[in-house]
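Quick entry between incubations.
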Amino acid sequence: MELLVASAIGIMTAAGLYLLLRLRTFPVILGISLLTYAVNVFLFASGRLTVGAPPVLRDDITAYADPLPQALVLTAIVISFGMTAVVVMIGLGAFLGSNDDHVDDQPEGTP
Amino acid sequence: MTHWLIAPVVLPALLAPFIVLAARYHIGIQRAFSVAGVVALIVISAGLAWNASDGTVEIYQLGDWAAPFGIILVGDSLSTLMVLLTSVLALCVLLYAIGSEWDDRGRHFHALFQFQLMGIMGAFLTGDLFNLFVFFEVLLIASYGLMIHAGGTARLRAGVQYVLFNLIGSTLFLFALGAIYAETGTLNMADLAARVELIDPADTVGIRVAAVLLLLVFAIKAAVVPLHFWLPSSYAEAPAPVAALFAIMTKVGAYAIIRVYTLVFPPDVEVTSGLHDVWLLPAALLSLAIGMIGVLAAKRLDRLVVFAVIGSMAMVMVSIALFTPAGIAAALYYIVHSTLAAAALFLIVDLVRTGRGNVDLTAQSPMTGAALTAALFFVGAIAMAGLPPLSGFIGKLLVLHAAFETDMMVWVWVIVLSSSLISILGFARAGSILFWKAHSITHSEDDLVMPRPATMSYVAVGGLIALLTLHTVFAGQVHGYTTRIATTLFAPTAYSDAVLKTPGKLSKPKKEEEH
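Done. Structure below.
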């Protein structure tokens, strides 16, 4: 399981970084989404991976899942979700205004 | 435990939805509430600063849960100083926004402004790393809205870059937090400090990665080269009052570095050895050089001010990177100066834009209101370039003095002094093109006559200049105070004890054998 989760994080991060280095808005936003998925899984795994263990204290149980990373991940998911929506709207506005969706500054003089 | 410590966060948080819901279409009511809120913030934060000035560490436990289980806010002398600086800056910026009617060019300026204040205040006051992330996001979300306030294609394009860069920064921040939590099992700063010390020196790979990632995140916020690329176009394209408020946002990064790297990863801990002197100091010196060269190379006044901001932020980082009490004290003095001077210059750029229609550094016929604008620009440029008699000079002197006994003394002195000369040249060139050469251009008939900037705009800029003057006149007292802050930062037992040893109402263990 550790190998699966770790390689999933690694592959998503690599793909996200690759897309992040593209020139146009849409792939960059996709890249950011992939990166946030990767970081969500990473945060989730930071409390150690356990299967079938309860997160709440009870009698007669010795193995617990750490509930804190789960709360952190929830916060991170909500924030990244909202942020992606914001950046899509701003990117759309910029594209409709200038008919060009490059992320970088264009050299002066080009339309 | 009083509730005053959370007031700087709660007050704007309540005011902003009220402005959106109740006063959406009434700019007058929005203005009245916004100004009243900021004045109340100044009073509250002055009270907090006064309370913390004798070294008391005030803490606020949310939901009465004791640290490290609950989230806490901490008001020590450093946090309250920054909170006070923010609220005073906010008043000047708000007066300018109202005077120049920038706030009327979109509907939600005042609501976003209050949310921005909430995020900044929270980031300064929190004692928990994840909570710091959340408040960073609050201030960033509000800043996205403010950044594209009043619209326009150039502004939206700059906004996309700004948002994307900061999203990457936030993702890095989460990676750092995950790594820290995996290594230590806590995110409370005081608790972290205790646990980082206990980590076996042979087994520090994870925490080292986390410390470097965290420094990268804060360096993005503080616009240290090579992580400064988001700053020039976004600050130059942002509306002037917003850019002036953003002057405090780069300082949030500097504050976070001071807080985390004196408390959690102090320089004498094995984990982070080499991080400050080998990496941070050269990067800061490089950004100082690049910032000041940018001042000389700028073709537009707004870009010039942006690069001056990068340069002055780099001065702060040079001083921080020394990681001595004298260095931190000088950095804190310079942070106050740099915030006020940068904000004043951003507003002066807008005065120029109002008076002549553009900010290109080319000789054009005289702008309206040239005499007063020129006088303000002269004072602002002196402050920013670090010429006597204003506080920029004193700040640079303190930084040089703090660097005098370190190994890097030669580098720091050479780069600081030569970059100061370059920035003086840059500002002198800009000032003479804008204000002197204008007299040799005859006024042609078809020129549009621009309106004179509003009186309240001048009052707001004058207020910032007056604060700079006060900062210069009372330099001795202010530096004494920042020295005391720096001393407490390097002996953080008062902070840790206040955070960790205050019992909470709800977290008393029923049975002693819990651990």
